[in-house]
Every structure is written in C-alpha cells, then in structure tokens.
Write a structure and sequence with these properties.
Elements: E1 2-6, H1 10-22, E2 26-30, H2 33-42, E3 47-51, H3 59-68, E4 75-79, H4 84-92, E5 97-100, H5 105-118, E6 127-129, E7 132-135, E8 140-143, E9 146-147, H6 152-164, E10 169-170, H7 171-179, H8 186-200, E11 209-212, E12 216-219
Parallel strand pairs: 1-2, 1-3, 3-4, 4-5
Antiparallel strand pairs: 6-7, 7-8, 8-9, 10-12, 11-12
Length: 222
C-alpha cells in the first residue's frame, strides 16, 4: 500500500512509519492537516492515517476539506479521544474508520488493508440539492443549468451546506470547517455569506440559502 501518515508527534510517527515500512508499505508523512492537503494535491495514496489534534489544521477539518475537494481516498483517524461523540464527529467529517490510542500495530495494519481493498469512496463527487449541482473536485456549481460565479471560500461554504442539507449548520461549525484554528474577524463570515447569497439566490425567483436566527445556516431545495 501507498500510505499518507499525518501525525504531529514525532515519536508516534516514527513508530508507525518503521512498522509499516518493515511490513513492505510505502509511507509518506505530514505533520499537520495543511501539509497533508498539499501532499494529496500532488500524488495519490491508497489510504490515509490521520491524527485529530494537530496544529495549523486539525484532522477533522483536513478530512472535511479533502472531501469537499473531491478526494475519495479512505481515511482512518488515530486519536486518544474515545467518546462516542468524538467518533461520530470523525465519521461526519468524512472518515472511514476510527482507532483509539493506544492501539496494536497489527490491528492498524489490518484496518488499513481493509480500507485499501474497499477502495476510494463512491459518495465523494457531485452533490445535488434541488436544482443546485456542485462538483467539489472541479470547484464548479450550477443552479438550474446556470453556472454560479463564486469565490473559493463562498464555494466551500456552499459545499458544506449542500452536504448537510437540509440540516442547519451552526455558525461555529462553518468557522471551524472553513478556517480551522485560524478563525477570521467577525465580519469575514458575514461578507462571504452575503457573496454566496448574491450568487445563489439573487438571479432566481426562489431563495435557497436560509439564515436560521440564533442557530446558523441551511440550504432548502426550491
């Protein structure tokens, strides 16, 4: 297997790297989510091992980003966070498996093999909500056959809302997903929502983007 290992602890990384390379696998490494996204833009992997708590861009945000970008490579999360809510958050972000630290290396390899055999996810690709269609891999969105002109951040917000539609996505979840640890000033999200609304709703008779007071945002099919 060709494996991408994303882990900010050098000792943990070295232990996993040594074991997997001795088992005959090819392993590339990244110390945080941002570096992982760069590696994935440059080359293909069979499976990704992703730590959760990392600097610059945490594992959950990184996996959300790569799914938004149409990358379907299977992901296993490695983390000491073992609550049910932590695990559910991992799967909601786009993970395929979840292994709690400490763990046996033999179990990690067996799970990696199972994910590699399963292959890329089939649910990562175009997203449709009513007459809206998005292709995260190409960065394109159309509504009623008309291409929407969107900047990078409004497109990512739209992708997040479309994946969760018709559920409400909280303001904090949007901030965490789009910006990770580098939260912008209070006006940035408002301006991007305004730009998104202008492209998505203004040219059409029926609005799709709803602001739910005190809760967040959601897409509603016309």
């Amino acid at each position: 297997m060709k494996i991408l290992l994303v882990e900010d602890n050098p000792q943990v990384m070295e232990t996993i790297l040594d074991y997997l390379e001795l088992a005959g696998h090819t392993v590339d490494c990244a110390y945080h989510g941002q570096a992982a996204l760069q590696r994935l833009a440059e080359q293909r992997f069979d499976v990704i091992i992703m730590d959760v708590m990392m600097p610059r861009l945490d594992g959950l945000s990184a996996v959300t980003r790569l799914r938004e970008e149409g990358i379907a490579t299977p992901v296993i999360f490695l983390t000491a966070r073992d609550s049910l809510e932590d695990k559910l958050a991992g799967f909601r972000a786009g993970g395929d498996d979840y292994l709690v630290k400490p763990f046996a290396m033999e179990e990690l390899e067996v799970r990696l093999q199972a994910l590699a055999l399963r292959g890329p996810r089939g649910d990562v690709g175009q997203i449709s909500v009513g007459d809206l269609t998005l292709d995260p891999a190409c960065g394109r969105a159309e509504r009623a056959g008309i291409e929407l002109r969107l900047g990078k951040i409004p497109f990512r917000i739209l992708t997040l809302l479309a994946r969760r539609a018709p559920a409400v996505v909280s303001r904090q979840e949007v901030l965490d997903t789009i910006w990770g640890d580098e939260e912008p000033d209070s006006d940035a999200l408002r301006s991007h929502i305004y730009a998104l609304r202008g492209a998505l709703d203004k040219p059409f008779d029926t609005p799709m983007l709803e602001t739910v007071h005190g809760q967040g945002y959601r897409l509603v099919a016309p």
